[in-house]
Amino acid sequence: MLQLQNVSFSYAEEINLNSINFSVEKGAHICILGESGCGKTTLLKAIYGLLDLTEGEILWNHEKLLGPAYHLIPGHPAMKYLAQDFDLMPYISVEDNIGKHLSRRYMQQRKERIEELLRVVDMTAFAKTHVKLLSGGQKQRVALARAMAKEPKLVLLDEPFSHIDNFRRNALRRDLYAYLKQENITCITATHDSEEALSFSNEIKVMREGSFIQTGKPETIFNSPKNAYVASFFGDVNLLEIDEEPRILFPHQLMISTIEKGWKGRVLKSYFKGSYYLIEALMNKNQVFFKHPVSLEKGKQIYLESTV
Ligand SMILES: Nc1ncnc2c1ncn2[C@@H]1O[C@H](COP(=O)(O)OP(=O)(O)OP(=O)(O)O)[C@@H](O)[C@H]1O
């Protein structure tokens, strides 16, 4: 089990991690969701032991983890940290990169393990290819496989699918997270991709300026975002005042009223979104967005009501 107690860290004057407290049970998938620069990478590095904390401590199975000031080789052996820059060896093959840290004493086992991981990341066809010849997304898949190679107990993934195209991303995400669950590997993912946070984590921690501002199950965070910052990870948000109470409503929580009742507004623009249109409208001088099955003419007068 991983525990962070009152963890703070600063690169210079600014506080980059501010009194972080949390614990993670074995096999759990935690997602750190936050805007660029909020401290997600810094947190993963601190957990992996790449930083000397300004304050607080990190415990792994009740053992205190120490930073680089106490270790020649940083990083805990039970953990793997997948950095955004992959850190692969360009002039050797994909399979040798994946097997880099696997013992050559048991060649058959090594071979089978590499084959298994190549299947998980769908890179079997590239086993013999030199890494320097791969695309960014393919390199990211090799880096993911290498991170899993030695069966870590905890993986720290920093934007793990950022270079992988939509076409492959969904299948790969499903396969990788299913594999981690099957092997009971604990996982902490840093991302600003809400889809990843919603579909593949047991708990989301929303980070802002080095602190967690909301923690909860994906359903809870989505249905009751604490403020507009949290809500904005899930798409366009409407900030409305209903019965003198400020409310946050997503586009799917507003609909056109069939009778002349509700909030009066005027259509500004319709955006085609594939299975629906996102309508931008002006309501009491406020810009609002709502979903609608068909496009609406600019200037059309409408009445909107909340579905919740
Ligand atoms: N080596 C460093 N020295 C000084 N400041 C740094 C260093 N690395 C990061 N920072 C600063 O710390 C803050 C947090 O950076 P961090 O990389 O943790 O953010 P992030 O949430 O992972 O962002 P992104 O999503 O863009 O990767 C930023 O303000 C960044 O400029």
Automatic annotation (TrEMBL):
**ABC transporter domain spans which residues?**
2-234
Which Pfam families does the entry link to? ABC_tran
Q: Which GO terms describe its molecular function?
A: ATP binding
Supply the InterPro entries for this chain.
AAA+_ATPase (IPR003593), ABC_SmlMolc_Importer (IPR050093), ABC_transporter-like_ATP-bd (IPR003439), ABC_transporter-like_CS (IPR017871), P-loop_NTPase (IPR027417)
Keywords for this entry? Answer: ATP-binding, Nucleotide-binding, Transport
Q: What is this protein called?
A: ABC transporter ATP-binding protein
